[in-house]
């Protein structure tokens, strides 16, 4: 046993610094264009994900675009497909340092979406998940997850 304890004590020290934390809010700033739309039925035992991008992305039509501004406003440009993101308004995260949810506040309602990825200022792709639930009160059950994947539009 003394031999094994001696080996465990010989691990090299890890040095260096992680650096400054990434500004997640700055990562969202700019214009994003829808690249794909997928649906996962959580009631299906296979948990199959279906690509439904054709509902939003069609030849000759500009795909949905979302713009997030430094002044905490957001806007939507959309010609086809169901409107899941409101008409525009203001945006924020549930926790700016460690965001889990994107909040979109419009004139008449507040929408909340799961972040599928952490977006850093140099990332060119982001994913937003809308989790549809069924039930009332404390008995809410997630039934479907819609994943919207966006590509950053260079400025």
What's the CATH architecture? Answer: Beta Barrel
The helix tally amounts to 2
Total discrete domains: 1
Structural class: mainly beta
Gross geometry: globular
Output the radius of gyration.
Answer: 20 Å
**Low-confidence segments, ≥5 residues, pLDDT <50?**
none
Strands of the biggest beta sheet: in what spatial order?
Answer: 1-3-4-5-6-7-8-9
Head-to-tail CA distance between termini: 62 Å
Tell me the total number of β-strands: 9
Strand content: 35-45%
Average pLDDT, all residues = 87
CATH topology: Lipocalin
- Sheet of most strands: 8 strands, antiparallel, barrel
The CATH class turns out to be Mainly Beta
Q: Would you list the SSEs in sequence order as H and E?
A: HHEEEEEEEEE
Describe this protein's structure.
- The protein has 155 residues and is mainly beta.
- The chain has one domain: Lipocalin (Beta Barrel), CATH 2.40.128.
- Helices cover 8% and strands 41% of the residues.
- The protein has an eight-stranded antiparallel beta barrel with strand order 1-3-4-5-6-7-8-9.
- A hairpin with a 6-residue loop joins β8 (125-134) and β9.
- The longest helix is centred in the first third of the chain and has 7 residues, at 2-8.
- The radius of gyration is 20 Å and the shape is globular.
- It starts with a helix and ends with a strand.
